[in-house]
Amino acid sequence: MDTLQEILKDTAEYIAWKLEEGETTAEVSPSVLLELAAGSQPTKQTVAAASSAKKSSTVAPASTGTTQKTASVGTGEKVAPDDDRTKKLQVLAEDIKSCTNCPLHKGRIQAVPGQGNPNPEILFIGEAPGADEDEQGLAFVGRAGKLLTKMIEAMGFTRDEVFIANVNKCRPPNNRKPMREEMDACLPFLRQQVAILQPKVIVALGATAVEGLVPESSKQRISALRGHWLSFEEIPVMPTYHPAYLLRSPAMKKPVWEDLQAVLQHLGRPIPKRGASQ
Ligand code: URA
Predict the structure, then answer these.
(1) CA–centroid distance for 91 within its chain
(2) Disulfide: which of 89, 181, 198, 207 matches 73 by Cβ 3.0-4.6 Å?
(3) Is 243 a pocket residue for ligand 1 (Cβ < 6 Å)?
C-alpha cells in the first residue's frame, strides 16, 4: 500500500518534472489533493505517478545482440536506400506527419515520428514531443534529450545505434500529459514502428510512456514499476524514470543506471564502468 509520504513524493516529483518540461500548470485532481490533505490513499489515479500498487508481468531475458547498422531514419541523413525497414519507416513517417486522427494535430508545428537505427537492439520510448521536438521534428532533442544521449552513451551505444520515439507523435498543448484517447489514437503508429524495427528491448521513459504502452500498469506508480520487466507487442519493456525528471532529481540517476544495466544484461552486453548520465 502507498504511504502518504510516497504519494506526496511522487506528486511533487511529477509536478517538478512537468515544470522542467516547460509547463506552467500540472494536473492534480481535487480528490487527490483532498485525500493527501486527509492523509489517506487516493482512490483514483489522477496524477501520473500517484497511484495504488499492482503487480507487473515479467519477461524472461533474451539472447545476445546483433550487428548494428548506422543508417538513420527521420533525421534526413545517412539513410540506407536499400534497406527495406528504412523504406517502411519512411512511408510510416509520412503517414504520421499527415495524421489528423486526434485533436493534437491542430496545435503542432509538425508531428515527430522518431528517428534512429532501422535495426536497433533498443527502442527508447518517451511521452510526447516538447517545444524543441515540435520545432525540429526530431524526438528528444531538448535538455531531456541531451541527458538521454548521455544515458545511451553510458550504455555503450550511440544515438544512431538505437531508435528513439514517443507514444504520442504530436506535442500536447503546454506539454500537458496526453489523454488516454490521444494515446490510443497514436498507438497504431507505435505498433507499426515496433513491427518494422523489431527491437530486442523497449525502454519506456517515465510514467506516461509506461502507461501508454501498458495501460493496465497505470494503477501503479513509476517508482514501483521501474526495474520490472513488462511487455508491449511481445517485446520486453523496461520502465524507468524520464530524463526530464532526472534533470530535477539527479539522485534518481542511480536507479535509472540500475535499470539500464538490467537492459544490457538482457541483451548479453558488457556493462560499462561509468554510470548513466555522469
Ligand atoms: N520528452 C519526451 O517524452 N519526448 C521527447 O521527445 C522530448 C521530451
Answers:
(1) 23
(2) 89
(3) no
The domain locations on the chain are: 3-59, 67-267
Q: Which residues touch 86 (CB under 8 Å, ≥6 apart)?
A: 71, 73, 79, 80, 118
pLDDT digits (tens, 9 = 90+) for 260-276: 999 999 999 999 986 54
Which pTM does this prediction carry? 0.76
Regarding the beta carbon of 144 and ligand 1, being less than 6 Å apart is answered yes
Q: What is the pLDDT of residues 90-135, one digit of tens each?
A: 999 999 999 999 999 999 999 999 999 999 999 999 999 999 999 9
| Burial label, 225 (beta-carbon count in 10 A; 0-12, 13-18, 19+) | buried
Tell whether ligand 1 has an atom less than 6 A from the beta carbon of residue 124.
Answer: no
Task: Tell me the C-alpha distance between 127 and 208, whole Å.
Answer: 6
According to the model, what pLDDT value does residue 48 have? 32
| 130 Cβ closer than 6 Å to some ligand 1 atom | yes
The pairing of beta strand 122-126 with beta strand 201-205: parallel
**Residue to probe by mutation, ligand 1, list 132, 133, 167, 208, most atoms within 8 Å of CB:** 133
CATH superfamily of 67-267: Uracil-DNA glycosylase-like domain (3.40.470.10)
pLDDT of residue 69: 41
Q: Could you tell me if 166 and 123 are in contact, meaning their C-beta atoms sit under 8 angstroms apart? A: no
| CB 127 less than 6 A from any atom of ligand 1 | yes
Question: For residue 276, what pLDDT is reported?
Answer: 46
Residues 16 and 262: their CA atoms lie apart, in Å, by 27
- H or E element in which residue 126 lies: strand 122-126
Q: What are the cell numbers at 250?
A: 539527479
Which one of 166, 205, 241 would you pick to mutate in the ligand 1 pocket, going by the greatest count of ligand atoms within 8 A of its CB? Answer: 166
113 CB within 6 A, ligand 1:
no
> What's the rounded mean pLDDT across residues 157-183?
98
